[in-house]
Amino acid sequence: MATISAVLAISFLPSPARFAVAATASSSSRIKRAARFRCCAEPSSPNQETSAAPPAPQPEKPARSPPSSLLGIPTSTWSAGVAGLGFLETGYLTYLKLTGSEAFCPISGAGCGDVLESDYSVVFGIPLPLLGLVAYGLVTTLSLQENGKDFLPGLDDLDIRLVLLLIATSMATASAYFLYILSTKFVGVSCSYCLLSAFLSFSLLFIRTKDVGFERIQKFAGIQLAVAVIVALALTNSYSSATTQLKGTDDFVLEPYETEITTESSPFAIALARHLHSIGAKMYGAFWCSHCNEQKQMFGREAMKILDYVECFPNGAGKGKKMTQECSAAGLQGFPTWFINGKVLSGDQELEVLAEASGFVADGTEQSKEILQD
């Protein structure tokens, strides 16, 4: 009613008065609306903002790249298996090295024992099998990690694959270097453990290259080359130091002496000795060499008088004593060494091996036939 009365009262006012009152009423209405707008526009409390804001999205973990496979088996499984075999082999060789035990050589001949006990079986004072044991163990662990195990937290898939590739590169480079040493320093010597380790190292490099991909491997070629060069230089430096130390230990003199041959020569040994003499075969040896003495005992007294045996230290060994010019020119790396028809056989050899290498045919005696059949 009050509102109706006010409207009626305003309608009876003079025009200027009506306009003033209307302006006042209109202004009051705008003020009230503005006040209502300001009230709605005021910021809410912190609790209200938190409840109204949508939850922040959680960062997603990077998706693992699909594993590569070889013959239907994941490459991580392949590398774990191959490295596991290498771990067992180097573990056995490390035990032999640390305990001073003699290695079992599956392949006969002068052989793996000489290689495993040589100066090339140590790198910077650390046994080479021990270094291989650590390398194969690390590859096995990382391969199992890549296969889903959580041995080393904090490593993502890309880090593991790159580390495995570089380790495999270094191991393959070292194996290639050792094969070169085996072929040049141990001519005619067979080392089954060396060959097995080289095969495992090259297999690991192939598996890890297959895992990265032959197309993407070009991105890491520079790093691989740098690793290979560093490994080769380190091995060269280590073995050069070892050779210098060995040559410097000339603080003794060993006078020459005659080795007594106590065995009697068989007809086969005598016939073989005559054949070797006829074709110009030579046996190079040293008076202090136990393997040379064993070779002489195989032939016996009579046969050794026929053979062309070259003593490389006729004046003794040690300080101030040098190898003969003929032996130095032959490039000998150990004793005994046989030169037969252009072939080089290192180490003491069975008579049957010498007969086969020289093309010797038995004279038909019953004893000769029995020896060849055995």
The string of secondary-structure elements, in order, is HHHEEHHEEHHHHEHEHHEEHEEHH
What's the name of the CATH homologous superfamily of the largest domain? Answer: VKOR domain
According to CATH, the fold-level topology of the largest domain is de novo design (two linked rop proteins)
> Radius of gyration from the CA trace?
44 Å
Shape: elongated
Q: What strand order characterises the main sheet? A: 7-6-9-10
Number of domains: 2
Portion in beta strands: 5-15%
The helical percent reads 55-70%
Distance between the termini: 138 Å
How confident is the prediction overall: mean pLDDT?
A: 77
What is the annotated CATH architecture of the largest domain?
Up-down Bundle
Biggest sheet details: 4 strands, mixed
**Structure class:** alpha+beta
What is the total tally of β strands?
A: 10
Helical segment tally?
A: 15
Low-confidence stretches: 1-53, 59-63, 242-250, 365-374
CATH class of the largest domain: Mainly Alpha
Structural description of this entry:
Strand 3 and strand 4 (126-127) form a beta hairpin. The chain has helices at residues 2-11, 15-41, 46-52, 75-99, 112-116, 128-146, 157-185, 192-212, 221-247, 267-278, 290-299, 301-306, 325-330, 351-358, 366-373; strands spanning 69-70, 73-74, 122-123, 126-127, 253-254, 282-285, 309-311, 317-318, 337-340, 343-346. The protein has two domains: 69-247, de novo design (two linked rop proteins) (Up-down Bundle), CATH 1.20.1440.130; 267-373, Glutaredoxin (3-Layer(aba) Sandwich). It is α+β, with helices and mostly antiparallel strands and 374 residues long. The protein is elongated and about 70 Å long. Helix 4 (75-99) runs antiparallel to helix 6, helix 4 (75-99) packs antiparallel against helix 8 (192-212) and helix 7 packs parallel to helix 9. It is found in: Membrane. Residues 1-22 form the signal peptide. Its main location: membrane. It is a multi-pass membrane protein.
